[in-house]
Each structure stands twice: as structure tokens, then as C-alpha cells.
Write a structure and sequence with these properties.
Layout lengths: L12 H16 L7 H8 L5 H17 L9 H23 L2
Helix pairs in contact: 1-3, 3-4
Keywords: Coiled coil
Protein name: COMM domain-containing protein 1
Pfam families: COMMD1_N (PF17221)
Amino acid sequence: MAASAEHPLPEPAKPLLGLLNGIAQATFYGNTEITEELLREQLYPETASQEFGVLLAKMKGIVKESELLTMEFDETELNEMLKKLSEIEDSIISLTQAP
């Protein structure tokens, strides 16, 4: 379900949604063109490889452990889930940048 013009996705959610989509394409649909490096370059170009690796591992775990691909969400549920995932992303980035 795409975001409407009245309720666009917040900017931090767009790369995260792209990352989840890329993980799903590679994992569940066998798309070999989607590599970790491609995802980092396209979605998080300013993020160090190590930081991206932490985020990628966390998101892969979430995708594999959830029924994300088989569930139907209304727009409110989807926006809530994206907000929570964005908070997880921010938390992971903060942890990897801590001294």
C-alpha cells in the first residue's frame, strides 16, 4: 500500500522500507542482483560498512521472524510499523556511533 499525498512516508522511513524490500527480494524471491553492497550504496551511501552491516543483520532478522510478507496491513498499521522500524534503525545507528 503506497503512502498517499496527504500522508507521505517520513524521509527516514523511505530507505528503511527500501532495505526491507531489498532483503525480501533477495531472500524470498532469489533476486541475485540485490546485494548487500548495492543496498548500502543505494539506500545508505553515507553509512560506514560496519554500521550498515549491523542494521542489515537486524532487519534480516526482523524480516525472517515476522509474517511481514503475508500479512495485510491498513495504512495506519503500516505507518506504525514503519515508525517502529525507523526507531530501531535510529537506535542501532546510535549504538554503533557510541564511543
